Automatic annotation (TrEMBL), chains A, B:
Keywords: DNA-binding, Transcription, Transcription regulation
Domain HTH tetR-type: 15-75
The name this protein goes by in its record: TetR/AcrR family transcriptional regulator
PROSITE patterns attached to this UniProt entry: HTH_TETR_2
Lineage: Bacteria, Bacillati, Actinomycetota, Actinomycetes, Catenulisporales
Length: 210, 210
DNA sequence: ACTTTTGCACTGACCAGTCAGTTCAAAAGA
DNA sequence: TCTTTTGAACTGACTGGTCAGTGCAAAAGT
């Protein structure tokens, strides 16, 4: 009974139930927002009884917080993997950033609802899960900041760049472009979007020609 | 039945009350979200009775929609003004973009709550005010797209850039960087942030030295 | 001048409905 | 057997929206 809810020590059955609840909650909350989403709705969409929700999570807020941790865990793992991929084949740091942009797009492509919900909640204040959100944000941005710092150290990037702010700007670039892509031009290919953002990243916007 | 001369379409008193309600609602909704904010709270913060809210607006949603229109009106006016400013002194299109970035930062600096709320709601689906939000988004992005197109036409930008996507990415860059600035490093100056974003815009990130 | 009327703007108690969270006996796995 | 899920009933707090009534300043009436 004491089984910690985050650790994968729970039974496979319980874990499967949790997964279903995550998936139900993430879409509903992305569409309607946290407050407008009822626990009854989540249970219904997940195909379980309301009691099951409270058997698996202490409260609606706790369910949401664990959902956040779960999702950002996936994202950071994906970003890190992308950066390390270019590392091992001796790519430059711009290549690493580019690979992370692609990883970000792939993530958003796969989990659009989570991304929506994350953006919608990130800059709110006075909320119960504010601290969770801060931790989780820092984990994600830190990966980008890390690559920027390495780039500066290696002399590939200007020493004058503002690492935290540039990281935030890059994340914002990908985030907003991707959400717009999904919302307003969902038929475009990921490669297409990636190419456009690459161009922007590498400053190939001004100046004519390719 | 005398028509008040100060404000066409409503008495000055009424207009003042509406303004108070906008201000109260924008901060509360930015902090807590639409659903989590109660009409009682809005009324209390505005210093009016609950009935007054419903005297001035048909419903909670309508209040919110009019608030969105009001705010985005201010933003687009500001962006257009910035772009036209560089136009008249014969600046390049990059200068226009740069001026708009600054205008965006100034706006976010002055109305941080509105920006938060806008970002939080923009990509939601299945909401009553979805159509309002779309219109309002298009108004804002169109200003940036316009400058990009003019830049392409003038040969200043590559013909291969993807105008809508690049516009979205630029907006996202400013938006996220600014929200992070306000949330996590509020002591920094606007000039500082502007400089960092300018550098990114002009591709002066890679390559060493300034 | 000065009294009465009009109607806009506002008030706040009130209502009907909703929702998170609880409880628990019984059923279904494993 | 022990864990997990079910499902329905219940509670108590809260919320969007309503409405009969108040205050007041300008217009109308005398």
């Amino acid at each position: 009974m004491e089984r910690s809810s985050t650790t994968p020590g729970g039974s496979a059955r319980r874990e499967a139930t949790r997964q279903k609840l995550y998936e139900a909650a993430v879409t509903l909350i992305a569409e309607q927002g946290f407050s407008a989403t009822t626990v009854d709705e989540i249970a219904e969409r997940a195909g379980v009884a309301k009691g099951t929700v409270y058997y698996n999570f202490a409260s609606k807020s706790v369910l949401f917080e664990e959902l956040l941790r779960h999702g950002v865990g996936l994202l950071t793992a994906s970003l890190r993997e992308a950066a390390e991929g270019t590392e091992q084949e001796g790519g430059s740091k711009v290549d690493a950033l580019d690979a992370m942009i692609r990883a970000g797009l792939v993530f958003i492509d796969r989990y659009p609802a989570f991304t929506q919900l994350y953006v919608a909640e990130l800059w709110r204040t006075n909320r119960a899960w504010q601290s969770t959100l801060m931790v989780v944000r820092q984990q994600a941005v830190a990966v980008v900041e890390g690559v920027l710092r390495e780039g500066v150290a290696a002399g590939e990037f200007s020493e004058e760049i503002d690492v935290p702010l540039t990281a935030a700007a890059l994340v914002g670039m990908v985030l907003v472009a991707a959400l717009d892509w999904k919302s307003f031009q969902p038929e475009r290919s990921l490669d297409d979007v990636h190419a456009a953002l690459s161009r922007l990243l590498q400053g190939r916007v001004s100046g004519r020609g390719q």
